């Protein structure tokens, strides 16, 4: 709770103003029945019109003050709650930017989306109710009961019994529903995951005619959410019957006993009238409190989930005195062990001892799950090793400022991503101040100019979200061009030419020698043709180094490489080469 409320920041003043205006509004409303009693007893029953006019004018002023305070309180509440929600979204988004891949894996993308949308909306609504209703209702409750005690201490005992009864019922409901709402938001994550997965892969769904399967999967997630909400709302439905029991108990008790007190002369008609007003105000405040309880029950689960993100410590952080210069593109793995879940004992990489000279071109090949992507993720410090060290430019990557390191280690990942905007906008992710000429040169090196020149708007062509309007091969070439613009000391291509033909692949690799001759190039590929001209080739198997040598030597000495070569070259050739 403290973590979330800390995000009020500049909106604290609005929150306190709302509380102040609400308190003043309640005071005016509580005094109105008291003034009404004076009009009845001293004005109407005594036939004194002067008293009626005088107290009537006071009531008008009090009503206008109450109205004005209510309007100002509402405005301040809206400003404070909306400001809190805005600050929470900005803080969570900024926090996510500091997360490593392992932190993202912990929460999942749909889970983070739910926290930034549904959870924050719940907190926003609950906060508005807390600073308005949760302030107004207790004050109304206390002041109304104080006035009841002033008018008739004996009748006030009836209200106390009703309050104790309602607190017991509402408290019991809140304890149970809080557990249910915790589960509800986990189901929201499942629902968002289903929607996100389906929409992002809609082409695959339609290609395999799996619409019904996806509908069924979504319906299952939706029904789970429906079932939990029905269960929670079914319990909350007991609020109203409990409230009605308390209301009718108080009305009947006050009517029965109040009539006897009037007949006995111990209470005036005006006092009984104002007492009924205070009864309704008191019980209405309890009813509003029950609504607040529902909102708080929902928001507590949301607050916990939001706090988990805000208090999460990024697995990766800059050292106290970071190195801010990468000397060269040399890479050294010194007996590295790595697992995605530290301490699990399930290593993705085991005892990797590898030394790459600056400017070398290194091919990496191996079967699925052999640890190729895991290996290169450690070079740019997307993850930290469990044991051993990874050095770039002779310095442990954990000693670098991460921004400096990643600017010098450019990665084209296996999953290529383009963003909404023009082709130039996407290219300048690699270098924000790149000129048009630099962008065009990078595209020529990546063989992307071939298709860009055929587009009606050329480099001003707009890319749809996720690169939906370009092919897989075109997307890969744009991502390679984007990486080349950085002029890095290390360039990593993680199977990033898999969707282009071998002729284009060869042109791209030849362009590397001209455009970035001093850059260390690591090429992960499934095709022998993509790596056979590399200075050395690394063969991985089961997260271990099986061999590290030239193409010619591997063909003579390494069984795995021989098998891959035989299957691809002698078994029919690459997918776009003649047998």
TrEMBL record:
GO MF term (any one): ATP hydrolysis activity
GO cellular component, one term: plasma membrane
SUPFAM superfamilies referenced in this protein's UniProt entry, alphabetically: ABC transporter transmembrane region (SSF90123), P-loop containing nucleoside triphosphate hydrolases (SSF52540)
Alphabetized CDD domains for the sequence: ABC_6TM_Tm287_like (cd18548)
Keyword Transport: yes
Location(s), subcellular: Cell membrane
Domain ABC transmembrane type-1: 19-298
Coiled coil: none
Sequence ranges assigned to domain ABC transporter in this UniProt record: 331-567
Organism superkingdom: Bacteria
Protein's membrane topology: Multi-pass membrane protein
InterPro entries to which the protein is assigned, alphabetical: AAA+_ATPase, ABC1_TM_dom, ABC1_TM_sf, ABC_transporter-like_ATP-bd, ABC_transporter-like_CS, P-loop_NTPase, Type_1_exporter
PANTHER family assigned: ATP-BINDING CASSETTE SUB-FAMILY B MEMBER 10, MITOCHONDRIAL, ATP-DEPENDENT PERMEASE MDL1, MITOCHONDRIAL
Listed name of the protein: ABC transporter ATP-binding protein/permease
Annotated organism of origin: Candidatus Gemmiger excrementigallinarum
């Amino acid at each position: 709770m403290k973590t979330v409320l800390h995000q009020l920041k500049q909106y604290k003043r609005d929150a306190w103003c709302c509380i102040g205006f609400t308190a003043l509004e309640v005071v005016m409303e509580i005094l109105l029945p008291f003034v009404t009693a004076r009009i009845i007893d001293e004005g109407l029953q005594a036939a004194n019109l002067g008293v009626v006019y005088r107290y009537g004018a006071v009531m008008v002023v009090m009503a206008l003050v109450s109205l004005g305070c209510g309007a100002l309180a509402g405005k301040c509440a809206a400003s404070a709650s909306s400001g809190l929600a805005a600050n929470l979204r900005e803080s969570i988004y900024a926090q996510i930017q500091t997360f490593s891949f392992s932190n993202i894996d912990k929460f999942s993308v749909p889970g983070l989306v739910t926290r930034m949308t549904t959870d924050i909306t719940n907190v926003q609504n609950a906060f508005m109710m807390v600073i308005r209703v949760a302030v107004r209702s207790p004050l109304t409750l206390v002041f109304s009961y104080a006035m009841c005690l002033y008018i008739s201490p004996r009748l006030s005992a009836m209200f106390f019994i009703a309050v104790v009864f309602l607190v017991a019922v509402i408290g019991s409901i809140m304890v149970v529903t809080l557990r249910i709402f915790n589960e509800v938001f986990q189901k929201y994550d499942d629902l968002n995951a289903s929607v996100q997965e389906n929409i992002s892969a809609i082409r695959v769904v339609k290609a395999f005619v799996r619409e019904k399967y996806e509908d069924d999967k979504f319906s299952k997630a939706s029904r789970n959410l429906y079932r939990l909400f029905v269960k929670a709302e079914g319990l909350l439905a007991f609020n109203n019957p409990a409230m009605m029991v308390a209301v009718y108990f108080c009305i009947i008790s006050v009517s029965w006993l109040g009539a006897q007190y009037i007949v006995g002369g111990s209470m005036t008609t005006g006092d009984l009238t104002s007492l009924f007003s205070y009864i309704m105000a008191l019980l209405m405040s309890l009813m509003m409190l029950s609504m607040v309880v529902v909102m708080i029950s929902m928001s507590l689960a949301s607050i916990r989930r939001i706090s988990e993100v805000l208090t999460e410590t990024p697995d990766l952080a800059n050292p106290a005195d970071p190195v801010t210069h990468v000397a060269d593109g040399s890479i050294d793995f010194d007996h590295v062990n790595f697992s995605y879940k530290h301490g699990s004992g399930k290593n993705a990489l085991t005892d990797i001892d590898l030394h790459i000279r600056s400017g070398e071109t290194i091919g990496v090949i191996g079967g699925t799950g052999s640890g190729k992507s895991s290996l290169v993720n450690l070079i740019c410090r997307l993850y930290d090793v469990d044991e051993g060290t990874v050095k770039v430019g002779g310095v442990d990557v954990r000693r670098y400022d991460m921004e400096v390191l990643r600017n010098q280690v450019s990665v084209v990942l296996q999953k290529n991503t383009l963003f909404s905007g023009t082709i130039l906008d996407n290219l300048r992710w690699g270098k924000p101040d790149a000129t048009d000429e630099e962008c065009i040169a990078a595209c020529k090196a990546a063989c992307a100019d071939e298709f860009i020149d055929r587009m009606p708007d050329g480099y001003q062509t707009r890319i749809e979200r996720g690169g939906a309007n370009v092919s897989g091969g075109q997307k890969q070439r744009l991502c390679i061009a984007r990486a080349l613009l950085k002029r890095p000391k290390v360039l990593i291509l993680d199977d990033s030419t898999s969707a282009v033909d071998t002729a284009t692949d060869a042109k791209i690799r030849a362009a590397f020698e001209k455009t970035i001759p001093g850059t260390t190039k690591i090429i992960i590929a499934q095709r022998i043709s993509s790596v056979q001209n590399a200075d050395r080739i690394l063969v991985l198997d089961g997260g271990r180094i099986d061999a590290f040598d030239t193409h010619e030597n591997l063909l003579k000495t390494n069984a795995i490489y021989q098998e891959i070569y035989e299957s691809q070259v002698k078994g029919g050739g690459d997918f776009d080469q003649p047998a």
